[in-house]
Amino acid sequence: MKRLLSVLLLPLGLAAFPALSYANHSWGNYHWARTINPFTLKLGDNVSSAWDAYLAAASTDWIVSDVLDTTIVPGLTTAKRCRPSSGRVEVCAATYGKNGWLGLASIWASGSHITQGAAKMNDSYFNTATYNTPAWRRLVMCQEIAHTFGLDHQDENFYDPNLGSCMDYTSDPDGPPSNEHPNAHDYEQLVTIYGSHTDSTTTLSQTGAQGAMPPAMTDIDFEGPGQWGRLIRSTHNGRTELYELDFGGGHKIFTFVIWADEEDGGRGNRR
Ligand SMILES: [Zn+2]
Ligand SMILES: [Zn+2]
Asked: How far is the CA of 42 from the centre of ligand 2 (A)?
């Protein structure tokens, strides 16, 4: 029965991303394959001491979920490179340059299953007065990590009232209500993604699915949009965008981007 479920879910994973709605903010059913719930996802620590408390806080925020746990482990890459490793997520913070983006998260998918992930915070902006605040650091860390679980945004309008979720974009993360942590709907969404089934295999191991990936897929540089592939969703003046790189055979990389404000050297309101 479990095997049958995975087969049935596969075509959903290959379908186009659904339109964003409050009821469902998963990444088109992309999820880590695991044989039991709750499962534990390793977060590789490649961040500086300025970020350690925020990484720890985000990890603590998400383990409230009944279906998944996170654990912080030593990173396997350099912050600048942020090269992913099979079966885990690398979390990185570095001065990536004033290239416009504040944070990004990428998932490597094989069919509907996530095989590895990377979350990056751009210190070139977080070192500026606008973004060097606990509220902005909490929001972006919380959100980028959650994208690697398969969670999408709850709301992408920067000027709506805050929903009280780090998956809600805002121009004022402090609120009230604060958008620095997950809310109940985020945990419900994780149950929707993970609570309904388990898989006969796991993608949470270091020796897992990476071997099946096209070699080019494991050696990608993510400095800018030229490397992120096709833009498949853009909202609200281009301040949040979703890109897809398709390697064929169900192998894809998705990258979620949040842009900094134009006045701070980002691409916000560029349209
Ligand atoms: Zn599955
Ligand atoms: Zn995002």
From this structure: 20
